[in-house]
Amino acid sequence: MESTKLIKVWDLPVRIFHWLLVAGFFVAYLTEEELLTIHAWAGYLVLGLLIFRLLWGFVGNDYARFASFLCSPAKSYAYLKDAIALKSKRYLGHNPAGAAMIVLLIISLFMTVISGLVVYAADQNLGPLAGMIGGQQ
Ligand code: HEM
Question: Which residues are bridge partners to 133 per DSSP?
Answer without folding.
Answer: 130
